[in-house]
Amino acid sequence: MSLTSAATLATLDRTGPRRITDLAAVEGVTQPAMTALVRVMEESGLVERRGDASDKRVTLVCLTEAGASYVRTRRQAGVHAFERLIGELTGGEVEALVAALPALKHLAELESQDREGPKQ
Question: Which of 23, 37, 42, 53 is least surrounded by Cβ atoms within 10 Å, i.e. has the fewest?
Fold first, then answer.
């Protein structure tokens, strides 16, 4: 799976259903590229398109259970990789990481806000 596909699934998991135009903007690709990507993920059973109850002209891209499961599995694999690597650090290095956690959390929040863009 491409990084853009994985990032798109993670965005949908984090923010809920989105328009293709919103997803394209968040992931930094063109709308036609996102449309093609959504089509491939839809054929793979990872996402589905649904109408927007508040605006019948709009179609939203939603995660399926298979897509949500993929995101959870991928995140868990990342957690296990970090656990293994952290286990190889010295006590002082672990303490330095713990001290850096508030700053790292703030960076993640800033990045998330930047990627999600304005809410509708």
Answer: 53
| C-alpha torsion sign, points 84, 67, 42, 9 | negative
What are the φ/ψ torsions at residue 86 (nearest 5 degrees)? -65, -35
Q: Confidence band (pLDDT; 50, 70, 90) for 120?
A: very low
DSSP tag of 51 = E
Strand partners, 18: 61
- The pLDDT tens digits of the residues spanning 75-94 come to 999 999 999 999 999 999 99
- Intra-chain end-to-end CA distance of the chain, in Å: 29
Phi, psi of 46 (to 5 degrees): -90, -30
In the Cβ-directed half-sphere of 60, how many Cα atoms lie within 13 Å? 16
Q: Using CA atoms in the order 20, 25, 27, 32, what is the torsion angle rounded to 10 degrees?
A: 50
